[in-house]
Write a structure and sequence with these properties.
Blueprint lengths: L1 E5 L5 E9 L5 E6 L11 E2 L1 E4 L2 E9 L3 E9 L10 H7 L9 E3 L7 E6 L23 E6 L2 E6 L7 E4 L3 H4 L5 H11 L6 E5 L10 H18 L7 E6 L1 H12 L6 E5 L18 H7 L10 E7 L4 H15 L3 E7 L5 H15 L2
Parallel strand pairs: 12-13, 12-14, 14-15, 15-16, 16-17
Antiparallel strand pairs: 1-2, 2-6, 3-4, 3-7, 5-6, 7-9, 8-9, 10-11, 11-13
């Protein structure tokens, strides 16, 4: 349960998060992009009245962020948790219907805090992603055992291939409804969106594997299913964005454009990770400057609260421009987060498919 109040600091609001419990518990808030005070990176809630735990956080008025809670039976039960364990264990706010489940393939659930000044795409469901059911424009295609969820557009429209697409395909997430709404009001040919099931997320950083997946499995399967398109756009978030960037670099004659949100551009296959220098994809793209004529387009988006990944995204965008691509770089007020990805993706498709 959240409560929003204007802040004395212009451009901010004070948001109070509450957890109700009939039994004593230890509760922490995990608000994407915000620093925590507990051993597992959360913000501890305090008992303010019988059965009510609360904490107040100052948030920018244009922020769109996910939040979830970790619940322990006692102080002794608390433990230091990896980010993956945290994402597996988060529970949503039971009084907020705007829920995101299984982000980044993890098992937990979060709720969405969307302040009035944040960017919300007009096609996103007013029911905040809770509309269920199937639509005749949505169907599934098999690609060598991999599920492709097809959101049908026009045959003369572009094909948007979304990697790591399982969350987007969930009919409770809201993206399926948003795509249908957007396409109904589109002036030009509507894109066909293909959401690629990627339970094997470890392949996303392997460029050769991703090239083979697209050219040998996904596209042939769509052709067999009589899916028509004009031009290909690849898209993804985090490691999925890295995969899209790799395909843009490796298949410039096949890929017309890419949508990359919070791309893992730091990746170079070494440990420990070095966020302070451009990764493999950015360096490879920079080496192409002036070596070939390209007309590819790319939309690069990153959250303002993503730390070093903001610079990484700028470096990639600069390298893409240097290689002759048409680049649109944008920041969203938030963290590494599907809360704003869902709106940013629709805006990016608008930019590439006006």
């Amino acid at each position: 349960m959240t409560e929003l109040e204007p802040s004395s600091v212009v451009g901010h609001s004070d948001v109070t998060f509450r957890w109700l419990s009939d039994v004593p518990v230890v509760v922490s808030l995990h608000l994407t992009g915000f620093p925590g005070t507990t051993i597992h990176g959360g913000i501890e809630l305090t008992l303010t009245e019988p059965g009510v735990y609360a904490t107040t956080v100052r948030v920018l008025d244009d922020a769109c962020v996910s939040y979830g809670f970790l619940i322990f039976d006692s102080v002794e039960a608390q433990q230091e948790l990896s980010i993956y364990k945290v994402l597996d264990s988060l529970v949503e706010d039971p009084r907020n219907p705007d829920v995101i489940r299984r982000a980044f393939g993890m098992g937990g659930s979060t709720s969405v805090l969307q302040l009035p000044g944040s960017r919300r795409h007009p096609a996103w469901p007013e029911s905040r992603g809770q509309v269920g059911g199937d639509d005749e424009s949505v169907y599934v295609v098999d690609a060598s055992g991999r599920k492709l969820t097809v959101l049908r557009g026009d045959r003369d429209g572009p094909l948007v291939v979304m990697f790591d697409g399982d969350l987007w395909a969930d009919n409770q997430f809201g993206y399926r409804e948003a795509t249908a709404t957007r396409n109904k009001s589109a002036i030009g040919p509507s894109p066909t969106v293909v959401l690629v099931s990627t339970p094997d997320r470890a392949i996303l950083d392997k460029r050769t594997v991703m090239t083979q997946l697209l050219t040998d499995e996904i596209l042939p399967a769509l052709e067999r299913a009589d899916v028509g398109w004009s031009g290909i756009i690849v898209a993804g978030q985090s490691y999925g964005g890295l995969a899209a960037a790799g395909l843009l670099v490796d298949l410039p004659d096949l890929i017309d454009a890419a949508i990359i949100q919070s791309g893992s551009f730091w990746f170079d296959g070494t440990e420990p990770r070095d966020y302070g220098r451009p990764g493999t994809i950015t360096r490879a793209l920079a080496e192409l400057a002036g070596t070939r004529a390209v007309s590819n387009r790319v939309v690069v988006q990153v959250g303002t609260m993503e730390g070093a990944m903001v610079d990484q995204s700028r470096w990639f965008a600069d390298a893409a421009r240097g290689a002759g691509m048409d680049v649109h770089f944008d920041t969203y007020s938030g963290g590494h987060d599907y809360a704003w990805y869902r709106h940013g993706l629709l805006y990016a498709i608008d930019q590439l498919c006006p």
